[in-house]
Amino acid sequence: MENDSRDTEPAERLDLIEGMISERRRSNGHRGSIKRAWWVVGIAMLLAPSVVIVAQGPAQNGADAQREAMQKLAFLAGHWSGPLTVQAGPGAPLHLTQTENVQFKLDGLVMLIEGRSTDATGKAQFEALATVAYDEASQSYHIRAYHDGHYVDAPLTVTADGFSWGFKAGPAQVENTMRLTAKGEWQESTDVTVGDRPAQRSVEMLLTREP
Predict the structure, then answer these.
(1) Which CATH number describes the domain made up of 77-209?
(2) Could you report the per-residue pLDDT of 91-108, keeping only the tens digit for each?
(3) What's the pTM?
């Protein structure tokens, strides 16, 4: 019965490799390039299973840790809608309807958030997309948000009932804070600070989960 090297333990593979190396050293030096090529292929075939096992092990463990961490944001998954108020400067605020479509991707590794704001006529006034993921190496969450041809990367802090994240926009510091209310509503606000001036509330929204 022939020995199948695919089922050989790593230590036995090393013994086989050493034997092949010794055999090559005992060769009379007249073997052609084809035999040398097959010798290299043989080494690669013996090493490949061990390399794959080593490479896949940490990645699989890392993916499991990421999925577990992402479950802390599972309360966001679903379809949400509700009123949005935007105060862009002096004058009357803008009242819109906000929808958020939140779902997990890549078997729970990434959360995809799609936001859309519409006016009273149903015309879209604002659209954005964001992804949230967890990095087990730094043990931190990160968000990447896209809007109007631009994007920002920022760390995201997850709390027991929500999250927060912020970024620099020129001289301004933008801070977004979200939490679930006692009624299970998605309450979020955006505050903008420029220099030493007091923070200004620019966005407020209160969303309810759709069936």
Answers:
(1) 2.40.128.20
(2) 889 999 999 999 999 999
(3) 0.70
